[in-house]
Amino acid sequence: MGRYAEPLSKLFVAFARLGKHDKVLDVGCGPGALTAHLLSVGAEVSAIDPSPPFIDAIRTRFPDIDARLGSAEELPFPTAFFDAALAQLVVHFMTDPLVAVRQMARVTRRGGVIAACVWDGPTGALAPFWDAVHRIDPGGEDEALLSGAHRGHLTELFEAAGLRDVDEVALAVEFVHPTFEEWWEPYTYGVGPAGDYVQRLDGDRRAALKAVARDRLGGGPFTVTANAWAARGTV
Question: Which letter, b or e, does each residue of 45-75 get, where b requires 16 or more Cβ atoms within 10 Å of its Cβ?
Fold first, then answer.
């Protein structure tokens, strides 16, 4: 998702109203798309992720930041330590989103910002993939049912966590794929729900899915417009 996450980071940080000298925690940092943009605007960044390969990657990429292995539900940071805590494309993978957002609020000072964004289920970055899946497997369970994947889900979560002045908006990014193969290849890596789905298919069904997706998208170049929901609240 890095190819979509990088342009989304710019919109997300602007929405969160963060900038130079803000002390920010990147929750579920992955390989560092959001961290990179936060650093580019002058923020002081710490990061955490439950995946050892991602933490290894972000430590290599940004050796001077505090990057820790851990979960959003048990953040290993002091109370009221940050000015803001952000979670980009992570809420829908949290074991307990409500506990995690409360933890984000705990480690953020009073008056600080908590913000999260997730892809919209029907029109997010993975929508073309799941559309192809449903043409051959109408009962295939996609990410549209995950936390935050529809308008209002993040607002409900933030308000349940006790945040104030919650605002939710739609963000949209566009990415031009030069070829179909460039779009398809990442789905074969077994990463995330989409990758897991492809890995479970036998050779014939994988070929059928690929053919349906190619028929829908064409050989390239083509543009994917990915829509996301973003929410911001105050501690």
Answer: bbbbbbeeebbebbbeebeebebbeebbbeb
